[in-house]
Design brief:
The protein has a domain at about 5-260 and about 435-480: Alpha-Beta Complex (Amidase signature (AS) enzymes). Helix content is about 40%, strand content about 15%. It has helices spanning about 10-15, 20-40, 50-60, 105-115, 155-165, 180-185, 220-230, 275-290, 300-320, 340-350, 355-365, 370-390, 420-425, 430-435, 460-475, and strands spanning about 45, 75-80, 115-120, 170-175, 190, 215, 260-265, 295, 400, 440-445, 450-455. The chain is globular. Bound molecules: glutamine. Glutamine binds near residues 128, 174 and 206.
Length: about 475
C-alpha cells in the first residue's frame, strides 16, 4: 500500500521500527500533494518542499536517538490561526496577511519536541468565523470528494488536506463546530477536546470562552496518539485545566459492552436530511448489536443554542478583535488624515464582511441598554445548556447525534445568507457552550459525500469518546476509503 494511505499510527510504527525513513514518508505525501493540492487549495502557506528537506535531516538524527518519540519525522498540517514562530500566521485575513509570530503556540512547541514536520498552514474562514472557508480573504478550499462543494469550516483546509490524503493529520480549532463540521464534510475524524484540556497559548483568539484546539486525523487511534502529545496543563494559558493526561491510546480496542448511549431527540428533528438521519441511526444500531444500551433522552434547550451562541461568540470577538487597530499588529491603511481615520480605515480595509458583521453584532449586544437583554440573557441560556448536559450525563455515558444536518453544500450556495450558514452549526455549538468534548467520525455517504456521526462526552472523558468511536470505526470500512 502507498505510504500516503497509511495512518499516522502505522507510519509512526514504521519509522520507529526503522522500516521506512522519515524522508520516504514525507516524499510520498509531497508527491500526493503535488497532484491533489492544486485541485483543493488547502494551504495558505505550503511548506511541503521544506518538509522534504527537513525529513532528510531527520533521517540522520534518528540514529542518534535513544528512544524515538511517536511523532518523530511525521508530517502534520497546522491551521493558520495557530502561531508558528518564523512562519506566517494569517488567520486568512488581510489584517494579518504578512504577520510572522515571534513565538510558537504551546501545541507547536510540544509537536516540535516530538520531532514532527510541519507541511504548511491551512486555509480557514477569516479569524475562524464561518462554516465553509468561503470567508477566507484569499480563496475558498474545495471538498476533496467533490470540487464543487465546500470542505466545511472554519478548519476547512485542515480537514480537506487530511481527507485528500496529502497529509496524515492536522490541527484545527473549534469554537462552535469548526473541527467537527469540516471533518464530517471531508470524511475524516475530528475531535474537539474538553475546554481546558489543550493549551490555547498561541491560538489567535476568536471567542475565548469557547475556542479550543483539537485534532483532525484519518483514524480514531491517530486522534489518541496526537492527543497524548498536545494535551496537558499549561501555565501560559490561564484557562488550561490542571488535569492529568491519561494515555488516550489505552482506550483503543477496549470493549464497549454495557455502556449507555443517549440519543437526544431534539437532534433528530425535521429539517435534517433523511439519509443523514438514517446513517446515524444505523451506526447507533450497529453499536447496540455490540452490546451498548441505547436510550432516548431529551435536551430541550438545544433549540436556543444557535441564538445564544451568535450573541456570545460575536460579543467576545468584538472585544478580542479590538487589538487590530493598525498600531501594533498587521495591516495599516496608507492614507489617513488623523489617528481616528487611521483606525477606521485600517479596520474597514483589513477585515472582511463576516468579521465586520460579528464585530457589529457583538458591540451591539454588549452596549449599555442592550447588555441585559442580549449578552446577559445568552449567558443564562448557556448555563441552562450546561446544566442540561450534566443532567443527561447522570444517566448515560455518551450522547450520539448527527454532526451536521446535511452533507457538504455547494460553493456559493449559502455565501449570501448568513442565517442559513449559521444554522449549519445547529448540532455542534451546544457542545462548545457546555465546554464538553465531542468527536465526529465518518458513518457513511450520501451521493458520494461523507456523513459524520458525533459522539459527545462528559468533561475530560475524551477516553470514552475514543473507546466508542474507535470500536464503531472498525465495524466499517469508511476509514479505508479515499476520494479518487
Ligand atoms: N461556524 C461557527 C461560526 O461561524 C463556528 C466557527 C468555529 O468553530 N470557529 O462561528
Amino acid at each position: 500500500m502507498s505510504l500516503w494511505k497509511k495512518s499516522l499510527t502505522e507510519l509512526s510504527n514504521l519509522i520507529r521500527n526503522k522500516e521506512v525513513k522519515p524522508s520516504e514518508v514525507v516524499e510520498a505525501f509531497a508527491e500526493r500533494t503535488e497532484q491533489v493540492e492544486p485541485k483543493i487549495n488547502s494551504y495558505i502557506t505550503n511548506l511541503i518542499d521544506k518538509a522534504v528537506e527537513e525529513a532528510k535531516e531527520k533521517d540522520n538524527q534518528i540514529n542518534q536517538l535513544d528512544s524515538i518519540p511517536p511523532l518523530f519525522g511525521l508530517p502534520i498540517a497546522i491551521k493558520d490561526n495557530i502561531s508558528t514562530k518564523g512562519i506566517k500566521t494569517t488567520c486568512a485575513s488581510k489584517m494579518l496577511e504578512n504577520y510572522i509570530p515571534p513565538y510558537d503556540a504551546t501545541v507547536i512547541q510540544k509537536l516540535k519536541e516530538q520531532g514532527y514536520i510541519i507541511t504548511g498552514k491551512t486555509n480557514l474562514d477569516e479569524f475562524a468565523m464561518g462554516s465553509s472557508t468561503e470567508n477566507s480573504a484569499f480563496f475558498t478550499t474545495k471538498n476533496p470528494w467533490d470540487y464543487s462543494k465546500v470542505p466545511g469550516g472554519s478548519s476547512g483546509g485542515s480537514a480537506a488536506s487530511v481527507g485528500a490524503g496529502i497529509v496524515p493529520a492536522s490541527l484545527g480549532s473549534d469554537t462552535g463546530g469548526s473541527i467537527r463540521q469540516p471533518a464530517a464534510f471531508c470524511g475524516v475524524v475530528g475531535l474537539k477536546p474538553t475546554y481546558g484540556r489543550v493549551s490555547r497559548y498561541g491560538l489567535v483568539a476568536f471567542a475565548s470562552s469557547l475556542d479550543q484546539i483539537g485534532t483532525i486525523t484519518r483514524t480514531v487511534e491517530d486522534t489518541a496518539l496526537l492527543m497524548n502529545v498536545i494535551s496537558g496543563h499549561d501555565p501560559k494559558d490561564s484557562t488550561s485545566a490542571n488535569q492529568p493526561t491519561p494515555d488516550f491510546t489505552s482506550f483503543v480496542g477496549k470493549d464497549i459492552k454495557g455502556l449507555k448511549i443517549g440519543l437526544p431527540k431534539e437532534f433528530f428533528i425535521e429539517g435534517i436530511d433523511t439519509t443523514v438521519k438514517e446513517k446515524v441511526l444505523q451506526a447507533v444500531n450497529q453499536l447496540e448489536k455490540e452490546g451498548v444500551e441505547v436510550v432516548e433522552v431529551s435536551m430541550p434547550t438545544t433549540k436556543y443554542a444557535i441564538e445564544a451562541y451568535y450573541i456570545i461568540a460575536p460579543s467576545e470577538a468584538s472585544s478580542n478583535l479590538a487589538r487590530y487597530d493598525g498600531v501594533r499588529y498587521g495591516y495599516r491603511a496608507s492614507n489617513y488624515k488623523d489617528l481616528e481615520e487611521m483606525y477606521s480605515k485600517t479596520r474597514d480595509e483589513g477585515f472582511g464582511a463576516e468579521v465586520k458583521r460579528r464585530i457589529m453584532l457583538g458591540t451591539y449586544s454588549l452596549s449599555s441598554g442592550y447588555y441585559d437583554a442580549y449578552y446577559l440573557k445568552a449567558q443564562k441560556v448557556r448555563t441552562l445548556i450546561y446544566q442540561e448536559f450534566m443532567k443527561v450525563f447522570q444517566d448515560v455515558d455518551i450522547l450520539a447525534t448527527p454532526t451536521t444536518p446535511d452533507t457538504a453544500f455547494g460553493i456559493g450556495e449559502k455565501a449570501d445568507d448568513p442565517i442559513q450558514m449559521y444554522l449549519s452549526d445547529i448540532f455542534t455549538v451546544s457542545v462548545n457552550m457546555a465546554g464538553v468534548p465531542a468527536i465526529s467520525v465518518p458513518c457513511g455517504f450520501k451521493d458520494g459525500l461523507p456523513i459524520g456521526i458525533q459522539f459527545i462526552g462528559k468533561p475530560f472523558d475524551e477516553g470514552k469518546l475514543i473507546q466508542v468511536s474507535h470500536y464503531y470505526e472498525r465495524l466499517n470500512d469508511y476509514y479505508k476509503t479515499f476520494p479518487e
